[in-house]
Amino acid sequence: MGDNAILKRRRRELIVGAVLLIVLAVLPLPIESVYLRGLIVLTLLYAGLSQGWNILGGYCGQISLGHALYFGIGAYSSTILYVTLGIPPTLGMFVGGALAALAALLVGWPCFRLSGHYYAIATLVISQMFLLLASNWNFINASMGITIPFRTQSWLDLEFRTAILPFHYVMLAYVAVVWIIAWFIEGSRWGFYWRAVKDDAAAASSLGVRIFSSKMAAAAISGAVTGVGGALYAQYIAFIDPDSVLGLSLSVLIALPAVVGGVGTLWGPLIGAAVLIPVQQLSASWLGGSGDGADLMIYGALIVVLALARPQGLVSLFGIRSQAGGAVVDRA
Amino acid sequence: MTASLIIQVVLGGLLMGFVYALVAAGLSLIFGLMNVVNFAHGELLMLAMYGTFVIHENLGLDPLLQIPLIVVVMFGIGVAIYRLLIARALDVRFNTGMVQIFVTFGLSIFLVGAAQLTFGSDFRSINNGFLSNQTFTLGPVILPMSQVLAGVVCLLAFGVLAFISRTEFGRALEATREDRDAVALIGIDRDRVFSIGWGIGAAAVGVAGVMLASFYYISPTVGDNFALIAYVTVALGGFGSLLGALIAGLLVGVVEALTALFIDPSLKQIGIFAIYVLVLMFRPNGLLGRL
Q: Is B218 part of a structural domain of the chain?
């Protein structure tokens, strides 16, 4: 592909993104149902989270099964700053994001020497370790969790009583920012480095790509994005506890939209979230109200079927390929 | 704190360690063979535990006597999982590593849902088995008989696994792992070897499940904890190493028991995690890892 074609494609991506942003901004207005509005808010949140995961897992090829750790750090930092010191979450989320980025670097430091499945398992085990610690740490109220009290309606504090529409725009802004970050990365030198590391680390290294620092940079950005998402989630739900913000199922839920939609693509996480989150939520409220498990069966079967039928992701239905050039085969 | 208490706790940890080692061995075998991590491994354990529970409730057959039956059934389940899902996942042309991970994750979610639908979320247990309420006494040490026998049976099963790895079939496994295309030339069918590998891995978990069912509570998510311990054990011992799984399993069992005794029972896994992080830093491929 020539330079010109790449520029054209990137400009087209921006235009499609802008149109999509407008559509999504108008989308909730005619919807009356509180339930449906909430469903869209969650879908947006997971689209953003999964795009954040995609930066490390998709572009850089490091499959993390522990992103709940960064999410939880963001959620707890912002919440504790707000509840105990009154620091607004619009500020606290950046503290949470920074701490999550730091955590991602600390996890990355020993783990990026591991290859393939060793890395995936290490991230899983480390996040489970912090789940256990958080569940026993009285300073953060252990497994009881923290309820965020409603004080006064405020954009600064992201408090809107029971209104959902403001959160729609908060989450939409979040997705848009993360999408723009991913768009910049795709065109930047880092983006090329990461894809090179993913495709063939040995070859990339011989061409002068510093593999370790490439992975660390991807981890820091990915962790920061996830941490901010955790802080936003905490304000939206107004309650956090270790199981809901640090659990393994959350790590999987963060990764899945990107995997199902198409790893290492701009649109994959969005498409994946638009399919997975409604299926998961709707089947849970229709079938799983009594906790009878049928919803989990549908959700699990859907993951299996999509992963096997569309290993390159749902984006391939639209003729979009991973930027790494089509046949991305992991050597893991 | 008396010396006999510590001895008792260490022995209890060792016995649990044999169970952990057997669960980890199944995981390690499959990984070593085809570079696939089975994220539904804990759910296989859960299936075996429910299977034991149901047969015990309905037919009154004691868990101990169910071992051959559960081994056969679990072998079949392992083969079926390979044939239906894993063989396809190995053949995809894109993102193979990622597809393998998420296919087994999807399977684990599916199985938890199926167990919840069938049995509800309540904890079940077998209280009136042959071994229930019996104790094993050796000098000052008193341990529940079910736990002692679980350790012994798992160690025996581990011995069987080690034996298999030395037979002709074991060498075929080894050869298939080394080069799956080359073995085709000498008439070894990849799919056949891999599906038997999955069968053996699932059967090993099945034995552990039967023994656990006689003294551990049973719930749809009971596998989570054991799977986590199995990942740590396999990563500690080194993926693909049977001896590594045994040593690491015993280490994990003892460390867990001692952490519960000296620090806090609700933090008993912290000791395991601490050792895991240490090994991660200094021996990233595990104690006996060669991959």
A: yes
pLDDT of residue A290: 58
CATH classification of the domain holding B70: 1.10.3470
Please state the domain extents for chain A. 3-318
- pLDDT category at A325 given cuts 50, 70, 90 is very low
- Distance CA(B231)–CA(B225), nearest Å, equals 10
A238 pLDDT exceeds 70?
A: yes
- Contact A325/B at CB under 8 A: no
A18 pLDDT band, cuts 50/70/90, is very high
- Percent of chain B at pLDDT above 90? 46
Using the beta-carbon criterion (under 8 Å), do B94 and A328 form an inter-chain contact?
A: yes
Q: Is A177 on the interface with B (CB under 8 A)?
A: no
- Select from B200, B198, B196, B206 the least CA-distant residue to B226: B206
Query: First and final CA of chain A: distance in angstroms?
Result: 28
How confident is the model at residue A322, as a pLDDT? 57
User: Which one of B33, B35, B39, B94 makes the best mutation probe of the A interface by having the most chain A beta carbons within 10 Å?
Assistant: B94
Cβ contact (<8 Å) for B107 and A304? yes
In three-state secondary structure terms, B142 is strand
Instruction: Establish if B203 belongs to a structural domain.
Output: yes
Arithmetic mean of pLDDT over chain B: 88
Residues 75-134 of A with CB under 8 A from B: 110-111, 113-114, 116-118, 120-122, 124-126, 128-129, 132-133
Q: How far is B196 from chain A (nearest CA, A)?
A: 22
- pLDDT at position A326 is 37
How many beta-carbon pairs under 8 angstroms link A with B?
Answer: 154
Does domain A3-318 bear CATH number 1.20.120? no
CB contact under 8 A, B103 and A304: yes
Chain A (269-298) residues lying within 8 Å, Cβ to Cβ, of chain B: 291-298
**Domain span holding position B11:** 3-282
Q: What is the pLDDT of residues A257-313, one digit of tens each?
A: 999 999 989 999 999 999 999 988 888 887 755 567 888 899 899 999 999 998 888
Number of domains in chain B: 1
Q: E strand or H helix at A322, and its extent? A: none
Is A294 close to B113, i.e. CB distance below 8 A? yes
* Chain B residues touching A135 at Cβ < 8 A: 266
In this complex, is the C-beta atom of A248 within 8 Å of any C-beta atom belonging to chain B?
yes
pTM of the shown model: 0.90
Q: So what's the pLDDT on residue A332?
A: 35
Residue pLDDT, tens place only, A30-46: 888 889 999 999 999 99
| Statement: residue B290 has pLDDT above 70 | no
For residue B82, tell me if it sits in a domain.
yes
Higher pLDDT, A20 or B140: A20
Say which residues have a Cβ less than 8 Å from residue B130's Cβ, sequence separation at least 6.
B62, B63, B64
CB atoms B102 and A307 under 8 Å: yes
Q: How far is CA B80 from CA A155, B74, B88, B197, in A?
A: 54, 10, 12, 12
Q: Is A329 exposed, middle or buried (0-12, 13-18, 19+ CB in 10 A)?
A: middle
Is A258 in the B-facing interface, judged by CB distances under 8 Å? no
CA distance B190 to B198: 12
SS3 A154: strand
Q: Quick check: B158 pLDDT over 70?
A: yes
Residue of B nearest to A259 (CA): B98
How far B93 CA sits from the closest chain A CA (Å)?
A: 7
- The Cα–Cα gap between B66 and B130 comes to 12
